[in-house]
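Students often ask why inverse folding is considered easier than folding. One informal answer: many sequences map to the same fold, so there is more than one right answer. In these notes we will look at a single instance of the problem. The structure comes first.
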């Protein structure tokens, strides 16, 4: 089970980043010890696989990071391919990709003058028109996104081999 370190900086940035990391870890732990085939399997009524969830979570984090940096294109190409490994992608390559994104997110958050800094959301049917979100909101959204998918991942893992990923 992912534990939130009590040795994080006492400031809000450190606390929020620790919560993001705890949920990242919970998601990643669900796939530990599985073969590529097991991680790609879809053993439940859902179309989700563990490897697909990890790739989606990494792309989601990168997408929010890029929007905070002023970009408007969602990374990862085709939406459906964002939930499955394609081409030469493997679990280790997806985890390494996500590690790079994690480092970039942490460096970016450390560099922003304030968590109150905001940016406009790009036009999309699922965003309110002319909406803005703060850096604080982005970190809280990542906690929410990763926690939701960590729950999905736990169910998938338990269905694969009876192992409970989340304690």
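Output (designed amino acids):
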């Amino acid at each position: 089970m992912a534990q939130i370190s009590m040795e994080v900086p006492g400031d809000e940035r450190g606390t929020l980043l620790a919560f993001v990391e705890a949920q990242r870890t919970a998601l990643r732990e669900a796939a530990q010890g599985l073969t590529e085939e097991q991680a790609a399997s879809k053993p439940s009524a859902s179309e989700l696989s563990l490897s697909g969830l990890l790739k989606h979570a990494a792309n989601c984090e990168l997408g929010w990071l890029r929007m905070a940096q002023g970009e408007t294109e969602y990374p990862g190409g085709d939406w459906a391919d964002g939930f499955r490994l394609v081409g030469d992608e493997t679990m280790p390559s997806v985890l390494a990709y996500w590690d790079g994104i994690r480092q970039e997110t942490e460096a970016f958050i450390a560099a922003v003058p304030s968590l109150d800094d905001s940016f406009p959301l790009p036009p999309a049917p699922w965003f309110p028109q002319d909406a803005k979100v703060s850096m604080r909101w982005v970190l809280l959204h990542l906690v929410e996104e990763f926690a939701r998918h960590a729950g999905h991942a736990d169910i998938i893992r338990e269905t694969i081999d009876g192992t409970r990923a989340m304690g």
